[in-house]
Specification:
By secondary structure, this protein is of the alpha/beta class. The chain has eleven helices and 17 strands.
Length: 406
């Protein structure tokens, strides 16, 4: 069973001192979790199927790094100076630059419109000297968020929209505005997928979703809803992934959800890379025996959302890193927004990875704000001010936000 960790000052200093590229790529990251000497195990009866909050209903927060990009960039400037208070040192992403190959400090925003307003679900490609730097689809506001691996200010770049070059310019760091001659059909379909970690420590969250399923689906304001479920555990468990395809039959999906249980795991990281790769249709960087047989087709011209419900990161071996990063980049290119829901107490490295999922795909980050099984002082989140809501309220709020842009 995965364990929730109490970050003592000693443990925190050890992690900070060890945060270099070799620490993650060599497998030491996994070993550190597996050998942590201070697991916190909730008292019997503390977890009661309400999202990880003990006997009262859990509350969650939501934070958009895209909408608070200056705040996000500041997380990369705090050092590991021991003279800086512990809470501030914990709020430091600087040590994770390049972790899993992610680079999100040089965001380029492109806004695409027509004579009728924002152009949603159009493919925007950022190129330099004929080389693709990043690809993403616009949201309902016509915004695409692109993440080149270096700062582009003053450099000539080309912008393609739906495969046609629209503009070449010396980038000045501001939003790039493009107007299309032809109007773009607005999306009326919602493709919604829940990708759920179903290992032992996720029993609370799984039961919560079972209980709240009808309320969540009933409050989504979409003309057409296609719902899919993808559950995952880890290598060596009863299954690695278990998938129920997109359907408009909400009652049938509810039956599929109710049948699921939480079990397995064994170590802290799980097969999140495999699950997300299958969800977005990536050719897996796996050994032949592990290749996916799942073929998932997302709708054309749709709002595409994945809620990734988890409390652990993927493994950090090279294959897992390649698979995970490829899944995120593919999701951005296909216009699939990933909204991670961080359950229980997660480590700062796992938080960093989940926020890469969100920012690179135009998603947002949802996180548990209370958990009676551990010291509240340990539930520190590297975010600004946020509003607390129940998880089902936040899921509905976020879905409707991506549908309407409001």
């Amino acid at each position: 069973m995965k364990r929730i960790f109490l970050f003592s000052i000693t443990t925190l200093i050890f992690l900070i001192a060890s945060c270099n590229s070799d620490f993650f790529t060599s497998g030491k990251f996994d070993k550190w979790y597996a050998s942590d000497p201070s697991p916190v195990i909730p008292p019997a009866g503390e977890k009661a199927g309400n999202g990880g909050s003990g006997t009262k209903e859990a509350t969650y927060g939501e934070w958009s790094d895209i909408n608070n990009y200056d705040f996000y960039l500041n997380l990369f400037t705090i050092t590991d100076d021991v003279n800086i208070p512990e809470e501030q040192r914990r709020k430091c992403f600087a040590k994770y630059i390049g972790y899993f190959g992610f680079e999100t400090r040089y965001m380029v925003t492109v806004n695409v419109v027509t004579s009728e307003g924002p152009a949603g679900d159009v493919l925007v490609e950022l190129e330099q000297s004929g080389n693709n730097l990043f690809s993403a689809k616009t949201n309902v506001k016509g915004n695409a968020y692109l993440f080149p691996s270096e700062k582009l200010n003053g450099k000539n770049i080309a912008i393609k929209v739906n495969g046609v070059e629209k503009q070449t310019l010396a980038y000045d760091g501001n939003t790039i505005h493009i107007t299309l001659d032809d109007n773009v059909e607005k999306s009326s379909i919602l493709d919604l997928m829940f990708v759920i970690d179903s290992t032992s420590s996720m029993g609370d969250e799984l039961l919560y979703l079972k209980n709240k399923y009808s309320e969540i689906i009933g409050k989504i304001n979409a003309q057409t809803v296609n719902l899919a479920l993808l559950f995952y555990r880890d290598t060596g468990d009863e299954y690695i992934t278990r998938y129920f395809d997109f359907t408009k039959n909400m009652e049938e999906q509810q039956k599929n959800l109710v049948k699921q249980s939480a079990s397995g795991g064994g170590d802290f990281p799980e097969a999140a890379d495999r699950a997300l790769a299958e969800a977005v249709g990536v050719e897996l960087y796996q050994r032949n025996s592990d290749k996916s047989k799942i073929e998932i087709k997302w709708s054309d011209n749709a709002i595409r959302l994945i809620f990734h419900v988890c409390d652990a990161p993927p493994h950090s071996d090279q294959i897992s890193q390649l698979t995970y990063r490829s899944a995120i980049e593919t999701a951005a290119k296909k216009g699939i927004r990933i909204i991670p829901i961080a359950s229980n107490g997660i480590a700062i490295a796992a938080e960093y990875l989940l926020r890469q999922e969100a920012i690179m795909t135009g998603g947002t980050y949802i996180f548990l704000t209370d958990y009676t099984g551990k010291d509240e002082s340990e539930l520190l989140h590297t975010v600004g001010a946020y509003t607390e809501k129940n998880l089902d309220d936040y899921i509905v709020y976020v879905v409707n936000k991506y549908l309407t842009g409001n």
